[in-house]
């Protein structure tokens, strides 16, 4: 098991649970017999790159990109040198409109993770070219518990929920001590139904600053 820093102790009860053991058995077979994304060594990057202690924002995705070379364990992010998917292009358009920073020449969001943004998909794996193919293998149980853990053990976290799948997680979050920002998904199919103009990047930083936390540096061009 990869060392996940200060997440180790918090996630240990989940990793010991028989439901996780079923996920693990499923994944062993999938990785052995099919092409699965992300690479198994990148599977828990969202935790590795965003220590629990530093976490200020949770941005939820649905499942990893399912084409070659894209997914590397952070939702919406692709590795440098890979063409940005349409949803990510729309995220960058909204970022430029909202914050005023330039458009990056890559789609790697690791900087955001290092800034304290947990970039977690609700399913952590996918079979190549088959969207949502691992959605029912047990990941929802696991990631729901992570959301609840963050809600219970942290204060003044911003939860960014784009699209129906992410918005369905609202009941897991204690709205009396956290901020929920929600709107349509950045997909080209829905971005014009409320994603563009949502100003979630600015609203996130206004909330963090109001509660004595350093804002997120969203600019990926630096």
Question: How is this structure best described in words?
Answer:
With 222 residues, this protein is an alpha/beta fold. Helix content is 36%, strand content 11%. The chain has a four-stranded parallel β-sheet. A two-stranded antiparallel ribbon has the order 1-4. β5, α7 and β6 form a beta-alpha-beta unit. The mean pLDDT is 97.
What average pLDDT do the residues reach?
A: 97
Spatial strand order of the main sheet: 3-2-5-6
> What's the N-to-C terminus distance?
33 Å
The outline comes out as globular
Radius of gyration based on Cα positions: 17 Å
Main sheet: strands, sense, barrel:
4 strands, parallel
- What percentage of residues falls in helices of 4 or more residues? 25-40%
Q: What labels would you give this structure?
A:
222 residues; alpha/beta; 4-stranded parallel beta sheet; two-stranded antiparallel ribbon; globular
Secondary-structure topology with pairs:
Blueprint: H1 8-16, H2 18-33, E1 36-37, H3 45-49, E2 57-61, H4 86-99, H5 110-115, E3 117-121, E4 126-127, H6 139-153, E5 158-162, H7 164-167, E6 179-183, H8 200-210
Parallel strand pairs: 2-3, 2-5, 5-6
Antiparallel strand pairs: 1-4
Q: Outline of this structure?
A:
With 222 residues, this protein is α/β, with parallel strands linked by helices. Helices cover 36% and strands 11% of the residues. The protein has a 4-stranded parallel beta sheet with strand order 3-2-5-6.
């Amino acid at each position: 098991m990869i060392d996940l820093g200060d997440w180790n102790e918090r996630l240990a009860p989940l990793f010991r649970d028989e439901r996780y053991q079923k996920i693990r058995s499923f994944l062993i077979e999938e990785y052995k017999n099919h092409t699965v994304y992300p690479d198994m060594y990148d599977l828990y990057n969202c935790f590795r790159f965003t220590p629990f202690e530093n976490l200020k924002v949770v941005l939820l995705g649905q499942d990893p990109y399912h084409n070659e070379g894209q997914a590397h364990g952070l939702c919406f992010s692709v590795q440098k040198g890979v063409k940005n998917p349409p949803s990510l292009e729309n995220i960058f358009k909204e970022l430029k409109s909202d914050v005023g920073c330039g458009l990056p020449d890559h789609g790697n969001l690791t900087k955001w993770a290092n800034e304290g943004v947990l970039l977690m998909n609700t399913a952590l794996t996918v079979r190549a070219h088959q969207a949502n193919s691992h959605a029912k293998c047990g990941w929802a149980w696991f990631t729901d518990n992570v959301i609840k853990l963050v809600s219970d053990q942290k204060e003044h976290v911003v939860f960014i929920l784009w699209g129906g799948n992410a918005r369905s997680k609202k009941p897991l979050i204690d709205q009396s001590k956290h901020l929920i920002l929600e709107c349509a998904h950045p997909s080209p199919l829905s971005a014009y139904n409320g994603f563009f103009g949502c100003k979630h990047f600015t609203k996130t930083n206004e909330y963090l600053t109001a509660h004595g936390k350093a804002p997120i540096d969203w600019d990926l061009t630096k």
